[in-house]
Prior knowledge:
Layout: H1 16-32, H2 36-51, H3 56-73, H4 76-92, H5 96-112, H6 116-132, H7 136-153, H8 156-172, H9 176-193, H10 196-212, H11 216-232, H12 236-252, H13 256-277, H14 280-313, H15 320-392, H16 398-429, E1 437-441, H17 442-459, E2 463-467, E3 473-477, H18 478-494, E4 501-509, E5 512-519, H19 526-529, H20 552-563, E6 568-573, E7 577-585
Parallel strand pairs: 2-4
Antiparallel strand pairs: 1-3, 4-5, 5-7, 6-7
Helix pairs in contact: 1-2, 2-3, 2-4, 3-4, 3-14, 4-5, 4-6, 5-6, 6-7, 6-8, 7-8, 8-9, 8-10, 9-10, 10-11, 10-12, 11-12, 12-13, 12-16, 14-15, 15-16, 17-18, 18-20
Amino acid sequence: MLIKKATHLLPIATNHDTVEALIDVADQLAKTNKNPHQSVHILIIKGQNEYYSSNYEDAVAIYYQALEQAEQLHDSILLAKVTLNLGMVYDELEDYDEAINFFHKALTISQSIKDSSVIAKTYQNIAISYQNKKDLAKALEYNEKANELAILKKDTTMIIDVINNFGTIAYDQKNLVKSLDYYSKALNLYQKIKDRKGIAMAYNNIGLVYLDKNEYEKSIDYFNKSLALATELKMHGFIGDIYSNLTIYYQQKKDFKKAFYCYDRFNAIYDSLAGEKKNKMIYQIQAKYKLGRNTRELEELKVKNRSQLNAIDSAKSSQFYWVAITVLVMVLMCATVYLLYKEKELANELKNKTKELYELNVSKDKFFSIIAHDLKNPFNVLVSYTGILKTDLELFSKEELEQIISDLNEASENGYNLLQNLLIWTRSQTNRIHILKTNFVLADIFNDVKGLAELNLTNKEQTLSVEIDQNLGVYADKDMISVVLRNLVFNAIKFSVKGSVIYLNASLVGSNVRIDVVDSGIGISEESIKKLFTLDKNTMTHGTEGETGTGLGLVLCKEFVEKNDGTIWVESKLGKGSVFSFTIPAERA
Length: 589
């Protein structure tokens, strides 16, 4: 968990409504005293209150209002603070490039006025955005700068936050020992200064490291302590992060009932927050601010030109009058045309953003309805059969019991496979999966996948033929490519008839390696091919032995291949089998 800090003028209380009432009183006093600088200060506090309550749309609207007033006042101190806070909101919205853009503006202004407090906080937030972009080298560089200033200023709170962020960078680098050391130091210091929110986040971070180290007893102890404290402090968004980690914990412990409960809690929290983080109104506010600034510039230009025209009018006898007025008119016309063009451009951008966000929301709704439906099916089978067996076991013959056990096993496997793919996809969407590209020998994961598939191959009397240069290397995230290969090979087994041969090949093509999974199964229609890799379509198809699936595995394949700078596609005809192919970069020198 990254620690993000903004510039505070007054403490932010946990009671949003109480703080809002106090802010309104202060605002009225500032207006009565006709103090515009104090009014901007109050707007910043008001925006922080909305930000810490996860009301990002309201926070953006307030910060842009503050930015507009600070620009008109030419107040560098206020401009630095507003741009820093705007950067934090865009980081929460996962628009990291825009966040870094605002942070650099804040850094430039604060350096010009030598405000070391804002400089240090800006360094810290730039580091966080670069870490979210997976640029760990720059994240470490800016976190070091923040650390130097925090030590120089003897800012205890910031020193602890920076230590915590060193821990998250080490975690992303998969250095669990170093990460645990940083998190433990941060926890000890948070406890000394009695920062309860910091303690809750440190508990969660330590639990996450122990989870990745497979030290489950320590992991669940820290997760439970974090959840109890976060619930007491009403840290709603953070509680969702804890439930996400608990879902993974219980899934690894194979306690699927608790895993499903925690995932349901996580989904309930983040399904509501997703709307806030992707609300089209935020982009409308941004466009409105840019349009207002352009309008002000146009009005200033008109006033300036009018003044110049009056000066020229007093010298009508000069020939320069006619030349000057012509030039000024042309300049005014060009400026007007340019600003009208920018206005149209902003309107088109807003229209495109609105359409994109609408499509994303429709896609999300369809996807979760598919998952909810398909995840219930295996559990319905389990609940129905176990209920019957619990009360009427003696009524069934041996053959009937064998069939029931077979059905229960198939339902369990389907539920497990779906939950596993769903958890991987969820982690990728919430930045819980970190890409770590390295050079590795592709044959290693070919052999791993072949070993995993051996039982399924035997059950269907199939053969997996592997053809690969044992020294062929690639540059990618090994775990992600393993997930891709596993899904494609198991799909080929599922949709191929008994006794058939499945081919797994790899070859060097230019600067890339191409991998093909070839089967002679039932094939795919052209209409179905168009829907294979999309979230908003249910492409579930039964295998040759009645096996089922949701198509989520292929969505993961496409996402993981593209995250590794590759492409994926399929060639297929009904009744003649399919060839699933993808490329990834070859080994780097």
